Amino acid sequence: MNDRPIALITGGARGIGLAIARSLQATHDLIIGARSAESAAVACAELKSAAPFVADLTDEAALIRASEELPDLDVLIHSAGIWDNGAVAETTRSQWREIFDANVFAVADLTARTLPGLRRTRGQIVLINSGSGLASNAGNSMYCASKFALRAFADALREEERPNGVRVSSVHPGKVDTEMQRLIVRRAGGEYDPSKYLTAESVARAVRSVVDATEDATLEVVSVRPTEH
Ligand SMILES: NC(=O)c1ccc[n+]([C@@H]2O[C@H](COP(=O)([O-])OP(=O)(O)OC[C@H]3O[C@@H](n4cnc5c(N)ncnc54)[C@H](OP(=O)(O)O)[C@@H]3O)[C@@H](O)[C@H]2O)c1
Hints:
The chain has helices at residues 15-24, 37-46, 60-68, 93-121, 141-161, 179-188, 200-212, and strands spanning 6-10, 29-34, 50-54, 75-78, 124-128, 167-173, 221-224. By secondary structure, it is α/β, with parallel strands linked by helices. Helix 4 packs parallel to helix 5.
């Protein structure tokens, strides 16, 4: 690591998070979040100046242990997240707990633990939300509710941190060609056609604009939709 700004990207070893890491590597030292040391190591090996941040973020003790080692961050990008579906009538409390744990509680916890450093650097927090954080639909109550909660979290955090110079941005991609979307189509029994989706690189480009905003400006809410679908 040298004197470049430091960005931690949760979920940075694959999908949207890895695309963001690739796009930031020219200007930032990276800390790559993943659940396994192996997948973090694979991502770090292909990236310039990257270190692993290994923790299952739903495991509070693991999150605490890993975050104690962190330097002051200039950029914190929350990309880690999970999806699940099912009509409300068929969902269970443990499914609700699992999705909120990953998509909301872990985000709040890691944010709180890194905020002192982010205040010192007058840094940025970017939350990878979803179109599902702007509009809810049948069969998706768990995922949509978690992403609505994440938006509420972002809105409150933005106002709290405004006086501290910490900028908070919420990025809302539509459907993106990653493993998550393949799982969604598999579960629906459909044919997967990657051309119907945004690429992870297109989302990363939008995140790059958020990170590149001048210090007096915050791109507060960014919706990224496929042009044709
Ligand atoms: N794909 C889409 O269509 C789409 C659209 C809108 C928003 N999003 C959002 O974009 C974000 C990234 O999704 P993606 O499409 O890149 O999905 P993905 O390919 O399934 O990747 C999910 C990422 O989240 C990490 N993760 C999941 N649970 C975790 C946990 N308990 N602890 C630590 N890391 C965990 C995974 O880490 P491991 O590498 O350790 O498995 C992985 O890097 C998510 O927040 C998702 O909700 C996705």
